[in-house]
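Kindly inspect this chain:
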Amino acid sequence: MSPSAGLLPILMPLPVLVPLLAAAGTLVFGRRPRIQRTIMLSALTGVVVICGLLLYLADRDGTTALQVGNWETPIGITLVVDRLSAAMLLVSSIVLIAVALYGSGQNIRDGDERQPTSIYRPTYLVLSGGVSAAFLAGDLFNLFVGFEILLAASFVLLTVGGTEERIRAGVSYVMVSMLASLIFLAGIGMTYAATGTLNLAQLAQRIGAVPEGTRTAIYAVLLVAFGIKAAVFPLSNWLPDSYPTAPAPVTAVFAGLLTKVGVYAIIRTHSLLFPGGEFDSILLVCGLLTMLVGILGAIAQSDIRRLLSFTLVSHIGYMIFGVGLASTAGLAGAVFYVAHHILVQTALFLVVGLIERQAGSTSLRRLGGLAATSPLLAVLFLIPALNLGGIPPFSGFIGKATLLQAGAQNGSVLAWTLVGGSVLTSLLTLYTVARVWSKAFWRPRAEAPEGHLSNAKTPSLIEDSTDVRYDERTHPGSMPLLMVGSTAALVVVGLALTVLAGPILRIADRAATDLRDPGVYVTAVLGAAPVEPGASR
């Protein structure tokens, strides 16, 4: 164990336990919304601090494992913290607290008259615990459990309010998620039958001794399951129809986090269990198609929420690009880009919620003149939009440049094709967000084809009421300070990723170096690094 062994066993379970215990507390105080809110925000703030400490310790001391209940591996539950999982935990916890503040500011409204906040808060905390459980899992079964916890919570959050549109989207989302879970469960069964274990460290030792055909089949099944969850083309069609119907904070946290859990699972299994295999080329092709199909879908949209949902799919392709390169530089670029995209995409969806509140619509056919009526809103949109488009010197440019450099270093025809596709996708992303800016913010609303149907109001910032009976009908067009403040804070964190790009890239590079050496993970979990005979590395 590392020098911090005395502290880490205490900290490692807390990102899961704190939200789940807080969820139980919010259920107890279901009729006391102020207490519910205090419990939720306190718990999520504590998780941010804990995850910051975990990243510091993981970067200082390296990969560390905890055997829950002191059971020997692989009998008990194994939690593992390395630079990758700690970074994912910290970024996700920042997003979760920002979205929770945003949701508290609007009381989970968005023009809908039925918003059961007493259900929303405990469910949101359960979602937080599930995300953390997935990042910390040291075996495939508990990775599956983490997925199922966050998916069960997401089913409730997606349909909060009970409108017909949300129920319809929720049914589609449930069916796709159940299919992915069944495929994942089948992959778990195949893995255990072939190796006799589900512990990732033991699998890294044993998977090379499995016949090549069986090993390929196992990876294919797992890759399909994770590809659905990550919305990788051609398994991404479900996402644009599911996410835009939910309330703004729910859509934001889904867009920022849920697909990235799938990306994390792809990174972990590919680097630890199936490095340098024949699937690298398949991942590169899927990454290219994900980029291009996603951004072409975004160009065709006239609703900002659907447009951003397609850009979400598109930019998953950049992360798969880095994984498929299977190099230290490629993985470092993928890790950095995951952190960048979580922050920027979440911020953009929060801004869209403010646009809908301000103008009564997210359709580009009805919007216009928002830069004049709400300059602050314009700035909050412009900064993450330019970041998403990859304009220098933002973190989006830095992440893409890192991936392009890794592709150029690879030198293969397919890698250079990905480099060209990445540049084209970035230019089309910039065109897409520029179109939103020119139509929603720059042109006069009177020039919009359906501008007369919009409900734009004079902007105003008001202090957020702590009373859940706060009703936007008494403050038409207003933007509560807590909503604006949490959105602005997330935009600032995204800018901090730019300012601190050097140190963060160095952490990403160290994380990628660890990922490229399975022995680091195996040693931390099992205490012995040797790979069994027949394993391919």
Notes: The two ends are 25 Å apart (CA to CA). The chain has a mean pLDDT of 85. The chain has two domains: 1-275+518-537, 280-462+476-499.
